Amino acid sequence: MKILRTILIFILSVSLSSCIIVKNEEENEQSSPILKFSPTPEMKMSDEMVRSDEGDMVAFLPAGWLLVNLEDDAPADVIGAAVDKGYTMSIVFSRIRKTDKRDKIISREGVLGLARIALEKRAKKTAGSVALAGEYSEIEMGPRKFAKYEFANADKSMRGVSAVFVSTLNNYYELSVIPMNLTGIVPVSQSDLNRVFSSVLTTVQY
Question: Is the pLDDT score of 21 beyond 50?
Answer without folding.
Answer: no
